[in-house]
Amino acid sequence: MTRKKLIEEFEGSPFHSIKVSTYFDAYEQLLDRFRDQRITFVEVGVLNGGSLFMWRNFLGNDARIIGIDLSPEAKRWEKQGFEIYIGDQSDPQFWRELYAKIGRIDLLVDDGGHTYEQQLVTVNESFRNMNDLGLIIIEDTHTSYMKNFGSMTKFTFIDFAKTTVDKINSRYQGIPSQESTEKKFVKSVQFFESIVVFQMSNSPLEDSFRVQNLGEKVGAVDVRAVLETRSTAKNGVIGVIKLLKLNSFMHFFINLINNLRVFFQMYKYRKYF
Q: Who's near 186: CB < 8 A, 6+ residues apart?
């Protein structure tokens, strides 16, 4: 049987739901591997319940669908087979108690209040409660650019997501290490229009390093390194000339010294010639 696309499940949901038009293609790309799998899915923001049905129909009957909302009225959807928890997503203690009850999860979609405080708490309290390769998906991140959501601060959710990229890259040798939960457990960050996605590891990630195989070298030259050496030498000479206002003879003499310097610096590449 042909599986329906998410947009079809959205349009066919028996209850009202609101999504941004560009989300559906992103979700098709992100969630296909989770379909018809025994997973635990959590969505923040239930409202009229329409998205709960959309997710259940899209992910399949093996998925455990959990909804979180501030309003106690959301409990009505338990009659439809969903698990519903009432709480404030900006309260760290709520998340700790929730995960103590439900255990690790595979997917988290935050379609809640959209303030940067709510988004930051939701993500940070979920980092250590994801199964391996699980996804934390934050919707409506365009609110980081809206004044009424606090965009004038330097602590928006998008600012946080950008610094997460820095922390991930600090796993590479030679980059100043930024010890953090993000460095240890976030495998990757993806940016879509109005969506940020964190792919998680359930065990600490190791720092990376360069590796090489034992294949034959064919004498290829690292042109970037050679040009960088030449540029450094050239800029150094030009700086000296401008500083001392040397005459043409001195200019010629320094160019000669510069050429000799470049020759000896390039000598280390002799094995490639």
A: 127, 164, 167, 168, 198, 199, 200, 201, 205
In whole angstroms, what is the distance from residue 232 CA to residue 225 CA? Answer: 11
- The CB-based long-range contact list for 190-193 (8 Å cut-off, 24+ gap) reads 190/30, 191/161, 192/22, 192/23, 192/26, 193/20, 193/22, 193/26, 193/142
How deeply is 142 buried, as exposed, middle or buried, from its count of CB atoms within 10 A (0-12, 13-18, 19+)? middle
Q: Which helix (H) or strand (E) covers residue 69, if one does?
A: strand 64-69
**Rounded CA gap, 108 and 92, in Å?**
16
For residues 258 and 241, what is the distance between their CA atoms, to the nearest angstrom? 12
Q: Which stretch of DSSP H or E encloses residue 41?
A: strand 40-44
Contact 52, 46 (CB under 8 A): yes
Contact 16, 50 (CB under 8 A): yes
- Retrieve residue 140's tokens: 């409506």
Please report, in tens digits, the pLDDT of each residue of the chain (273 residues total): 567 899 999 999 999 999 999 999 999 999 999 999 999 999 999 999 999 999 999 999 999 999 999 999 999 999 999 999 999 999 999 999 999 999 999 999 999 999 989 999 999 999 999 999 999 999 999 999 998 887 667 788 999 999 999 999 999 988 888 899 999 999 999 999 999 999 999 999 999 998 999 999 888 888 787 777 766 655 665 554 454 454 565 656 666 675 565 455 444 433 322
